[in-house]
Design brief:
Rossmann fold, 601 residues, 16 helices, 3 domains, 7-stranded mixed beta sheet, alpha/beta
């Protein structure tokens, strides 16, 4: 058979396989029972100024439902996401919660967004016995509160505010700070918490400016006046901007357009796609949001560049489904929906009843199944790996997700160079020694590891098959490839990030002399040219059917993730891929097409 005929046969086989797979998927989905589905409610600001946030919540939950339905649903029952708008207000949340509790078949609720909305609606779900999974910072629980149906997946408002103040003072080292906050009970409380944290270290907030969050048009003028005052008084130090995405976007835009170059920090509302979209919306046509957001530090419960492969796979699926990269809002909504679905599967999925009987199980049974399932994840050793990390809950569904610090690189979020991670291991002692060594800090009444983050990039130069002489024959080794590449590290501090162990290298590789070095302020840069043989299929990252995944995995030889994390160097990778002189990775000897995988690093 000629190569041309062989190629045609392969194409026909691939087309046939694709058609069969598509038909099976279609039959599976169409055969689901939509007359008696498993209903999950998503409630939040689906209309109005915060609608972009609500859209992200919906996308995450709907992706989880679509994936479940693509796998046959739950014992033949389709999973359906029902949407409810709460106007992001307490009154709207109460009305939505009452509607949800009276709607037939709702097994769980994902939402709300504002702390005021969550606090107002939570008692209604508690009384109705409906599991509530909150996916946004809420107000701290009242002392003595013991809810049975509420599960928090994100830290509370005060915790993230105090954490940010600690980080700004003790990691960034900023002694001077001013605050712009909403003139509401919540805004004043968060400004006060930030100030009190600073006072603990012998300093205080120098300036407070309040604004009316309900007057978006007037807010721009108010922020412009603040910018003028800062310039006139030549105020130094960082600015803590407190507000929801629409308000914060107008404030930071007015500051930057008013030629205020002070550093800006904010809470997790500013770590969302909604915030970046709002910035873009208020800018003149043609001016990029990156000109405003670049360099802003924000709190966030998730950073994709430090997250696990579960998060990378979710990101790939989200982009494939919606054409846009997800933010932490979509990720945590997805996790919440998956937890609810898995809770039901763990119950009726293991039932000895047939599918017909399983489809008749009442909503009260399903709600209790979800609650009991979530309650079982009550310790780090019994955590469930999800997009947001290792998910488990404290007493009465309390949150255990830690605060992370993101940095805007243009309009994209990357990890800040230093992260603080809670110490979870039992039996860890010698904290004072670790504090003196700079490896541990005392934050929010607990000891936390100080973790150095190294921006790391890989430029693929060449990939070749590995040949081995076996007697008189030359044999291709199918389980490995020879890879030539550049690897570089951008970091701050006095340690050796290049002291790594390549996990899938056939022979040990040592990075000795750098190919290039550089210094930009206190940021160091080192690059190394490497050639070695690496085993295939070293990772669980998704890749197309019929392809092989070759690459490399590594970790530091001496330091654990408690004190060192490698993350994708978004800036450096972009610079490399824009170079005209970057060599091609294709090699005729491989007889194959070579492409960098999504999530290559």
């Amino acid at each position: 058979m000629t190569k041309r005929n062989m190629f045609i046969v392969i194409l026909l086989l691939m087309a046939g396989t694709s058609a069969i797979f598509s038909l099976l998927t279609r039959v599976t989905v169409l055969d689901l029972n939509y007359s008696n589905p498993v209903r999950i409610a998503v409630v939040g600001p689906l209309e109005g100024a915060d609608a972009e946030t609500g859209a992200a919540l919906l996308r995450g939950a709907q992706l989880a439902a679509e994936q479940a339905n693509g796998s046959g649903g739950i014992r033949g029952r389709a999973v359906v996401v029902e949407r409810f708008d709460d106007s992001n207000t307490a009154d709207g949340a109460i009305a939505a919660a009452r509607t949800i509790s009276e709607t037939e078949g709702i097994t769980a609720v994902i939402g709300h967004w504002s702390p005021e909305a969550t606090a107002a609606a939570a008692p209604i779900y508690e009384a109705a016995g409906i599991p509530l999974l909150t996916t946004a910072p809420a107000a701290a629980r009242a002392e003595g509160a013991v809810p049975e149906w509420q599960f928090r997946t994100v830290y509370d408002d005060l915790e993230q505010t105090r954490f940010l103040a600690n980080y700004l003072r003790n990691v960034i080292g900023q002694e001077t700070v001013s605050i712009i906050h909403a003139n509401t009970e919540r805004g004043r409380a968060l400004a006060d918490a930030f100030d009190k944290t600073y006072r603990r270290f012998g300093t205080k907030v120098l300036n407070f400016w309040a604004y009316d969050p309900s007057d978006l048009d007037g807010l721009t003028r108010r922020a412009e006046a603040i910018a003028q005052e800062m310039r006139d008084k030549k105020l130094t130090g960082h600015v803590f901007v407190q507000g929801d995405a629409p308000q914060a976007a107008r404030i930071v835009t007015a500051l930057r357009q008013g030629r205020v170059r002070n550093g800006i920090v904010g809470l997790s509302d500013m770590a969302t796609g909604a915030f970046v979209s709002e910035v873009q919306a208020v800018l003149p046509a043609g001016e990029p949001a990156a000109s405003i957001t670049n360099g802003i530090f924000v709190t966030t419960p998730l950073l994709f560049d430090t997250a696990t492969e579960v998060a990378q796979n979710f990101r790939t699926d989200h982009i494939g489904e919606y054409g846009i990269a997800p933010d932490w809002t979509a990720a945590f909504s997805y996790d919440a929906a998956r937890l609810a679905i898995d809770g039901i599967i763990a119950d009726i999925g293991k039932s000895t009843a047939d599918d017909e009987e399983a489809q008749l199980v009442g909503v009260d049974v399903l709600r209790k199944a979800i609650r009991d399932y979530l309650t079982g994840y009550d310790h780090p050793e019994r955590a469930k790996r999800v997009v947001g990390g290792e998910r488990y809950f404290g007493p009465h569904g309390a949150n255990t997700t830690s605060v992370q610090i993101g940095l805007y690189n243009g309009a994209s979020m990357i990890s800040a160079l230093t992260q603080l991670q809670p110490i979870l291991e039992r039996g860890v002692t010698g904290f004072l020694d670790l504090v003196q060594q700079g490896k541990v800090l005392y934050v929010n009444d607990r000891f936390m590891y100080r973790t150095n983050v190294v921006y790391t990039g890989v430029q693929l130069l060449n990939v070749e098959k590995v040949l081995e002489q076996q007697g008189e024959d030359t044999v291709v080794l199918e389980d490995r490839f020879k890879i030539d590449f550049l690897i570089w590290f951008r970091y701050r501090g006095d340690f050796q990030p290049q002291d790594v162990v390549f996990l899938n290298a056939v022979e040990p590789i040592t990075l000795s002399e750098p190919d290039k070095t550089g210094v930009d302020g206190d940021l160091k840069y080192e690059s190394y040219r490497v050639s070695g043989t690496f085993k295939l299929e070293f990772s669980d990252i998704k890749h197309a059917y019929g392809t092989l995944l070759t690459g490399l995995g590594f970790h530091h030889r001496l330091l654990s993730r408690n004190n060192l994390m490698y993350v994708t160097d978004v800036l450096g990778m972009g610079l490399v891929k824009s170079r005209n002189d970057a060599p091609s990775a294709a090699n005729a000897a491989t007889d194959a097409n070579i492409e960098e995988a999504e999530g290559w690093l």
